[in-house]
Amino acid sequence: MTSTGLSMNVRTTARRTVLISGASISGPALAYWLHRSGCAVTVVEKAGALRDGGYPIDIRGTAIEVVRRMGILPRLRDAHIDSRRCTFLDADGSEVASLKPSAVAGGVEGQDLEVRRGDLAASLYGKVRDDVEFLFGDSIDTLDEYGQGFDVTFRSGQRRTFDLVVGADGMHSQTRETLFGPEEQFHHYLGYCFAIFTMPNTFGLSREVMMWNTPGRAAALYAVGDNDELHAFLNFHQPEPPLDALRNPDAQRNLVATAFAGAGWEVPGMVKAMRDADDLFFDTAGQIRMPHWSSGRVALVGDAAYAPSFLTGQGSSLALVGAYMLANALATHRDHTAAFAAYERDVRDFVAMNQALVDQGGATLFPTTAQALERRNTRLRSLVTLPSAPARPAHSALTLPAFATMP
Questions:
Q1: Which residues share a beta bridge with 287?
Q2: Where does residue 266 fall: left (phi above 0), alpha (psi -120 to 50 degrees), or beta otherwise?
């Protein structure tokens, strides 16, 4: 276990002690705002260190204002990928349409950001590492609520007490599983599986995306810069979630290979690279939908509470906005019950609007029938001669309040 940040005695003068599980996006963002409000914050992360690299993610709409208030917007603008084009291909690799990414995503060119996930994580961590305690290579083992807080036992054997606990540990949150019940109660499967990995850039691609489609299958190569590495993406329709494969890497590789058997273009080479990749990430496309994001002295934030799926392009933005709003609610209300209620009241409509983007966003890029694919291609061809689409209202549908001073 690696511990970084403040020593434990800092919490003796703090108004609240808060344990956050997860150090990806929502966890460090929440830690920043909670520290600013006077809380003593500990972040526990099962990985041994901050995760770098990662696939590109979007920061849009209201989330841009969050990172501006955090003071990391200039750094993220420097890290902006600035893709030049997105080219769609048909079954034999012929071009269907080539567009600016903003025309496809519906964002605001020149305002919205696309960065490597690791660049955002590093920027967030850099803002809090000197003020917040991080416990890397550890995780929560047991949580025992005793009225005024929690007795927490970590996997390392360490025992601590905290006033509040927040689960920021992703779509497959162990915190949620422990305190709210099995994931199946809250997971809404969207009918797709996907695999992401890196492979050599032997195609000469630069700051662009190439996406191949047949009904129910999509393969994409994403060059985020001019380097010799590509992010590869294989997505396919699967009527029922392959639950047996979710924890079995060999089964995942076999499932993807079977789904793309006989595919054209560069897909056979991508499948081969997938089998050899040491950074394969496989999952189902789904959303987390919960009637409540808090219970007693524990709350959930980001994907743990309301994962919208990659099909919306809003996961990181929701994580940033949700972290801000939860911290602001806790700074506004001394009583945590009132704070959690305010957090849910003020954010739930925003979450619902963004989760609804799945019906008009990414899912329309992956048609499952020949007729739907032809309709999509017709729309793409029409976009070549039209101006970029305006930002979807859901991206900016929430006005951030000024950050509160803890009473």
A1: 188
A2: alpha
